[in-house]
């Protein structure tokens, strides 16, 4: 049993990842100007399409006198960031592996759970910042009522960890970051887009479970405009699935990287 | 310090490393030589607790890599052939992260980082970003990382690969310094010249099997190899053969009068070389140079291996 002080010690990998993020701020800011422009254009198109086809914002904002534009942008940015979350997380372990730094980490006394927890937490930072930014925009510029903001916040509390866990799982399962990102993107696409769309048209026995896993799109169908029991249930299920996927990733990571016994990789038997 | 006991790694039908047995004492610098695909990296990865041996074990200071890998990690400093560094952090930050990962108390990290930076001659680069460093400097940085927790055993996988001649010389000096400080160094390479001057012992691996291990003297003796003494002389070359005729251990003499050289094959130890040269000098051969060939790692390697892979 480790002493309590050990458990309370700050995760060195988390500190390291945050430091790297901080170091990358200039580059991110420089690249970000161009990316932000593209992102906003895409967000407008995406949000506009939502508004036009599904009366999405009218349902979320029933008493609005029309702030669809601001709402489109904020929602669009939010959803795009949500789509990016698993992509970023998918590079966590596979990226270290490709850079050759994973072996260095694995030969330190850091335990697997510390490594994975550090990666998971560091991936939480960016979406957390965006959510903190997007929700006030929704509230102020789009005059979204507080209960809806609360609903979104609650759902995102489950959804963001779920998406990070999906990305992390792909990162552990697949060796190459590109493959891991593609797999994470495909999974996130299913979670964020395809299943909600199917839900809109489906009536089968799977419709209810889908609603549980599926967050904001399902909300409009049932008219959940405040953090009611259903929303709490969605957030809870998302969190439970997120934890389950994280634990699965941890088990696979443990099996895959510590004492690998599978087929050799090019680095294992010097080629 | 390090004991390999029947260390074996099998991947399906492929035996990457087969029944390695070895003993290293503190302060030994062990050169692990073998062609590409021989099993050097697999062996080092097993010692670094990254791969579980299929059979056998290795003990670092008596601690098993199979049953106590977490304790072993505190005793080893591992530098892979692709030394993974994070380009987007500063040099001190990189070391600070690994110092924290090795659980060095916060108050000790600063002095230790300064110490390893000085040892690896990177003090002036303390505030530089890793991406600004040359390959040789990155390699030294990775070596600095392996020294942070003061491990008694260093595992260096192809450390000089891709370095320019100056960086190789610097690395060699660094290794000598580490040896003097009592570290045991297990260093793999297929560039034999980089190991020749620093290693106290060598092991030659081919197709996953340790063909020979020990000091070069021991290997020559065990393998029953002959030494080759290459002589250059300005005069008296014709006297060499009669002078050495019947001398114990001398097997053949080949004289090249045009090149003013002679090659003497003999079965003996290094201690026999001065006596042999003295005989030639006293006999009137004007010897201007002599190179003992069998202890040359390259020659030894070529004579003991057949170019097979695992």
Description:
The complex is a heterodimer of chains A (271) and B (310). Chain A is globular and about 55 Å long. Chain A has one domain. Chain A has 271 residues and is mainly α. Chain A starts with a helix and ends in a 14-residue tail after the last helix. Chain B is an alpha/beta fold and 310 residues long. Chain B has two domains: 220 residues, P-loop containing nucleotide triphosphate hydrolases (Rossmann fold, 3-Layer(aba) Sandwich); 68 residues, 2-Layer Sandwich (Alpha-Beta Plaits). Chain B is built from eleven helices and 14 strands. In chain B, the strands form three sheets. A six-stranded mixed beta sheet of chain B has the order 6-7-8-3-9-10, with helices on both faces. In chain B, strands 2-1-4-5 form a four-stranded antiparallel beta sheet. A four-stranded antiparallel beta sheet of chain B has the order 12-13-11-14, covered by helices on one side. The mean pLDDT of chain B is 84. Classes of the chains: A mainly alpha (271), B alpha/beta (310).
For the biggest β-sheet of chain B, the strand order reads 6-7-8-3-9-10
What's the structural domain tally of chain B?
Answer: 2
State the domain count of chain A.
1
Just give the CATH class of the largest domain in chain B: Alpha Beta
Second CATH tier, the architecture of the largest domain in chain B: 3-Layer(aba) Sandwich
């Amino acid at each position: 049993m480790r002493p309590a002080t050990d458990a309370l010690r700050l995760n060195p990998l988390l500190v390291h990842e945050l430091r790297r993020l901080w170091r990358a701020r200039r580059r991110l800011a420089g690249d970000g100007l161009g990316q932000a422009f593209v992102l906003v254009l895409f967000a407008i198109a995406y949000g506009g399409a939502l508004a036009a086809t599904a009366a999405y914002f009218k349902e979320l904002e029933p008493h609005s006198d029309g702030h669809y534009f601001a709402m489109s942008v904020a929602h669009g940015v939010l959803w795009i960031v949500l789509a990016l979350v698993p992509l970023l997380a998918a590079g966590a372990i596979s990226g270290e592996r490709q850079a050759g730094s994973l072996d260095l980490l694995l030969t330190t006394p850091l335990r697997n759970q510390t490594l994975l927890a550090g990666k998971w937490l560091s991936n939480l930072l960016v979406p957390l910042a965006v959510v903190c930014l997007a929700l006030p925009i929704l509230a102020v510029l789009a005059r979204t009522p507080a209960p809806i903001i609360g609903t979104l916040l609650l759902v995102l509390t489950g959804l963001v960890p779920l998406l990070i866990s999906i990305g992390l799982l792909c990162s552990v399962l697949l060796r190459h970051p590109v493959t891991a990102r593609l797999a994470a993107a495909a999974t996130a696409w299913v979670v964020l887009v395809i299943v909600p769309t199917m839900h809109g048209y489906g009536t089968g026995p799977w419709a209810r479970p889908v609603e549980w896993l599926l967050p904001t799109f399902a909300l409009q169908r049932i008219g959940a405009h405040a953090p009611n029991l259903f929303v709490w249930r969605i957030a809870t299920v998302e969190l439970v699935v997120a934890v389950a996927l994280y634990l699965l990733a941890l088990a696979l990571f443990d099996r895959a990287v510590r004492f690998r016994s599978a087929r050799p990789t090019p680095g294992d038997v010097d080629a | 310090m390090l004991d390999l006991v029947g260390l074996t790694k099998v991947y399906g039908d492929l035996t990457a490393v087969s029944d390695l047995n070895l003993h290293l004492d503190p302060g030994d610098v062990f050169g692990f030589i073998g062609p590409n695909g021989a099993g050097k990296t697999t062996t080092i990865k097993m010692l670094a607790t990254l791969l579980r041996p299929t059979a056998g074990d290795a003990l670092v200071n008596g601690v098993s890599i199979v049953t106590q890998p977490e304790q072993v990690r505190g005793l080893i400093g591992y530098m892979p052939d692709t030394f993974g560094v994070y380009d987007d952090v500063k040099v001190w930050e990189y070391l600070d992260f690994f110092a924290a990962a090795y659980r060095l108390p916060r108050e000790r990290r600063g002095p230790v980082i300064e110490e390893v930076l000085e040892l690896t001659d990177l003090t002036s680069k303390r505030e530089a970003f890793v991406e600004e460093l040359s390959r040789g400097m990155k390699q030294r940085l990775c070596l600095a990382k392996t020294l942070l927790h003061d491990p008694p055993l260093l595992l260096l996988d192809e450390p000089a690969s891709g370095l320019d001649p100056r960086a190789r010389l610097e690395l060699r000096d660094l290794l000598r310094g580490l040896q003097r400080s009592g570290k045991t160094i297990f260093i793999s390479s297929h560039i034999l010249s980089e190991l020749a001057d620093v290693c106290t012992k060598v092991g030659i691996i081919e197709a996953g099997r340790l063909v020979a291990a020990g000091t070069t003297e021991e290997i020559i003796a065990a393998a029953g190899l002959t030494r080759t003494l290459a002589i250059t002389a300005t005069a008296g070359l014709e006297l060499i053969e009669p002078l050495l005729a019947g001398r114990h251990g001398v097997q053949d003499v080949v004289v090249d009068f045009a090149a003013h050289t002679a090659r003497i094959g003999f079965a003996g130890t290094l201690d026999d070389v001065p006596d042999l040269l003295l005989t030639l000098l006293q006999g009137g051969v004007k010897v201007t140079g002599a190179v003992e060939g069998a202890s040359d790692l390259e020659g030894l390697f070529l004579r003991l291996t057949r170019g097979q892979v695992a």
